[in-house]
Design a protein that fits this description.
It contains 19 helices and 15 strands. It has 516 residues and is an alpha/beta fold. Helix content is 43%, strand content 10%. Strands 4-5-8-9 form a four-stranded antiparallel beta sheet. Strands 1-2-3 form a three-stranded parallel beta sheet. It has helices spanning 25-40, 61-72, 95-107, 118-127, 149-157, 206-216, 232-242, 268-274, 302-310, 325-331, 346-359, 362-375, 385-395, 404-409, 421-427, 432-444, 451-464, 469-481, 489-511, and strands spanning 12-15, 44-47, 78-79, 111-114, 163-166, 173-178, 182-187, 195-198, 203-204, 221-225, 250-254, 257-258, 283-284, 291-292, 342-343. Bound molecules: glutamic acid. Glutamic acid binds at residues 16-18, 50, 206, 210, 224, 228.
Length: 516
């Protein structure tokens, strides 16, 4: 397998989330694509925690990220937990490195100190609606370019707070080469002198920290969501300013995840409205206590989530849909990533889950069914593995989630407490109790409860008496299941056994009121 990309560098990618809340499903897709690309190319996958925005830090978010990636099988080679040769991998532990790099830019005249207070900035913004801190306005502001040197020194000595701004010169065409989008060119005039560092918390902003770390961690490809594309020209200029243009990573901006109807960007509200999670794991907001649902807790298998996400913005070049992680790795290539936004077709996510559940051995599904049974008040120790395996196997083709096993098979464990009124209306006439009484006699006389043998005898009896096959069998089913659904009738009775089956028919004779 190739270990290098076209430019001859070792492939090193990073997933660089900010711990500002639960990792969004779009972030998970970004992590996955980074991982697939790294593995496909024999490269390394870095997890870097970008926590320089202390105001937006949320406790628990970093653990959540680790847990979500581990659940999905997205392996990390270098990171806060894993360690590695280019650490620390948490930005708040790299302050010295950033300070040093800010100084490099200042010394080279590529950045400057700005002393404008938040109030002063608010005031200019109010006066000039389109105000931008840039080459056209900076000389009217209070910074180390506009103020005399001794004044700057006096401010520093007096402990005045400042920010460091990037000095962007107008008149440049800035080129971003994106491996999915091709060449994107923008004019440097539209960029503002971005803040790179704030003395108040002695921390860099996202832009500086991100570029410095990508450089020092030898990142070869920056694979991230499309929402970061607008930052890319600034990043290109920063690489140049540091003199690192030659080793600038390749940019790859992944398409947006769109609402299921394709109209606009996917949001948490779409999930709430349409009933699907937008987070990998359940999340309890530490401040409000609000709970957001997660794929894991909603009964999705990690393999299904990975498969579903992999196809939101990439295809294998043919119409293969079911691919496990190894297959995805073998097939992954940036050439087949799309530019166009990917509709978040959550129903398809359910289909993937359904398909993965079908592929699971019945015995394994049966194991996962036990806690569901207990939640429904069933003492599952009364049932052997073999029994549960058989029940699971009988109904699994109707389920999208393990939880659905209860809806499909609950009647095996509990006699009906009520009877579906529609089915009663259609299948339970005045004559039915009498026929059900006869059916009980027939069942009692059965030499065997084995499904096939029982079926042959009972159907024979129905035919001999000229009864209506559909009516009798459906009334039978209604009595045993409570509704006209479920697997093969005589498979059900074989599992329930004679006593339980007959008791249920008796109870129906007593309790079902024929529709009038
Ligand atoms: N910290 C940014 C985020 O939260 C990283 C963006 C990037 O990958 O450059 O997504």
């Amino acid at each position: 397998m190739a270990t290098q990309d076209n430019s001859g560098r070792q492939v090193r990618v990073r997933f660089a989330p900010s711990p500002t809340g639960p990792l969004h499903i779009g972030g998970v897709r970004t992590a996955l694509y980074n991982y697939l690309f790294a593995r496909r190319n024999g490269g390394k996958m870095i997890l870097r925690i970008e926590d320089t925005d202390s105001q937006r830090f949320v406790p628990g978010a970093e653990d959540y990220i680790n847990e979500a990636l581990a659940w999905l099988g997205i392996g990390i080679d270098e990171g806060v937990r894993e360690g590695g040769p280019y650490g620390p991998y948490k930005q708040s532990e790299r302050r010295d490195i950033y300070r040093e790099h800010v100084k490099l830019l200042l010394d080279a005249g590529k950045a400057y100190l700005a002393f404008d207070t938040p109030d002063e900035l608010a005031k200019v913004r109010a006066e000039k609606p389109n105000f931008q801190y840039d080459a056209s306005t900076r000389m009217q502001m209070r910074n180390s370019l506009s103020l005399p040197a001794d004044e700057v020194q006096r401010l520093l000595d007096s402990g005045a707070q400042y920010v460091v701004r990037f000095r962007i010169e107008p008149g440049r065409d800035v080129e971003v080469n994106d491996l999915i989008r091709g060449k994107v060119v923008i004019k440097s005039d539209i960029l503002d002198d971005k803040v790179l560092y704030k003395s108040a918390d002695d921390l860099p902003t996202y832009h500086l920290a991100n570029i410095v770390d990508d450089h020092l961690m030898l990142v070869s490809h920056v694979i991230r969501g499309e929402e970061w594309l607008p930052s890319a020209p600034l990043h290109v200029l920063l690489y140049e300013a540091f003199g690192w243009a030659d080793t600038m990573p390749e940019f790859v901006h992944l398409p947006l995840l769109l609402k299921p109807d394709g109209k606009g960007k996917l949001s948490k509200r779409d999930g709430d409205r349409l009933g699907f999670p937008v987070f990998p794991l359940l999340w309890t907001d530490p401040a409000s206590g609000n709970i957001s649902s997660g794929y894991r807790e909603s009964g999705y298998l990690p393999e299904a989530v990975v498969n579903f996400l992999a196809l939101l913005g990439w295809n294998p070049g043919d119409d293969t849909e079911i691919m496990d992680m190894d297959t995805l790795i073998a097939k992954f290539s940036l050439d087949h990533c799309s530019k166009a936004g990917a509709r978040f077709a959550f129903e398809k996510g359910k289909w993937f889950n359904h398909t993965y559940l079908q592929a699971m051995p019945d015995a394994e599904l049966a194991k996962m069914f036990r806690p569901v049974l207990r939640r429904h008040g069933v003492d599952d120790s009364l049932y052997t593995d073999a029994q549960l395996t058989r029940i699971t196997g009988m109904v699994k083709d109707r389920i999208n989630f393990v939880e659905d096993l209860w809806e499909q098979s609950g009647f095996f464990f509990e006699a009906p407490a009520e009877y579906d009124p529609k089915a009663v209306k259609k299948r339970w006439s005045e004559d039915t109790p009498r026929i059900m009484g006869e059916l009980i006699e027939q069942l009692r006389a059965l030499p065997s409860w084995e499904s096939k043998a029982a079926e042959e005898r009972i159907l024979g009896w129905i035919n001999e008496n000229g009864y209506h096959m559909g009516n009798v069998m459906n009334a039978f089913r209604l009595a045993v299941v409570g509704a006209c659904r479920g697997p093969h009738m005589f498979d059900i009775t074989e599992i329930l056994g004679a006593d339980e089956t007959i008791a249920r028919i008796n109870s129906a004779i007593e309790n079902v009121k024929p529709a009038v």
